[in-house]
Amino acid sequence: MGKLEQLIYTLLAYINNSLNKDINYYIAKSLLEHINRIESFSLDTVAEACNVAPSTINRFCKRIGFKNFSNLRNSVSIPMGVNLYEKAETELSTQMFLKQLNENIEMIENIPILNIDRIVNQIHQSRRIVILGFEKNQIQAMELQKKLFLFGKLCECDTNLFKQIDALSDLSDEDMIITISIQGNILSYHFPIMEKLKTAKGKKLLITFSSDLYKLEIFHDILQCGKIENSGVSSFTLLRLFDVLIDRYHRFSVSNFS
Question: Which fold has domain 3-86?
Fold first, then answer.
């Protein structure tokens, strides 16, 4: 359900950030209204549902980061027999919640301090930092942005996927990209963000729960801060990791400017 969730977040973000209710606003709204049928739609069918020309649909898809409607449709994966409106994650009991969170915190505590300090040093030295947060972890990405700002480091953190993609186009080797992808769904070949990350300049850090993503050679550093089966507590885990990073960043700043 991860790819579908990301599409929903993208469309909702477009609606939430639209200053005017123009044709693209209504396309986004119509796509959301038909989200459980998108996978079976042809370009002509979706154009008819949105009451616009097929070329207008393709232009909108490109605007939100997809090559065309076919690329958007292929990004949606709804397994047979799955109800779109069922809970994506099983509700955790208090005991299981604490167990999973403690396991993740233990993983964070076992990250070598040299790795943490190398990343902190990179954050400190980078001229420009773009933070990429996806799906439900966009809020945590903005929390990292706020924490770094309070210590004098202004970062970029847009909630719109297509604006995040645009931000990667004009980076330099002096810049840094911090990508938060807990399960790695957004890093599949269906999403254009992957191609942009490959070609973008700057140091690239990935924060994830997936051990499978270590094979991705596009990242200079990867922080695995939890177990993939503990994704239900990812929001709290990320906040703890950010506390660790910010504490080291503060220490680094004090030692360098005192």
Answer: Arc Repressor Mutant, subunit A (1.10.10)
Q: Which residue's entry shows tokens 């606003």?
A: 25
Output the CATH code of domain 94-257: 3.40.50.10490
pLDDT tens-digit readout, 190-213: 566 788 899 999 999 999 999 988
212 vs 209: CA distance, rounded Å:
9
What global pTM score does this model have? 0.72
Contact criterion met (CB below 8 Å) for 141 and 132: yes
3 state SS of 172: coil
The b/e string for 179-191 (b: 16+ C-beta within 10 A; e otherwise) is: bbbbbbbbbeebb
Residue 166: both structure tokens together? 């645009």
Q: How many CB atoms lie within 10 A of CB 236?
A: 16
Taking the C-alpha atoms of residue 77 and residue 153, their distance in angstroms, rounded to an integer, is 38
What residues pair up with 130 in beta bridges, in sequence order? 156, 177
Spatial distance between the Cα atoms of 174 and 225, rounded to a whole number of angstroms: 26
Both tokens assigned to 62: 């490109």
Give the Cα separation of 243 and 248 in Å (integer): 9
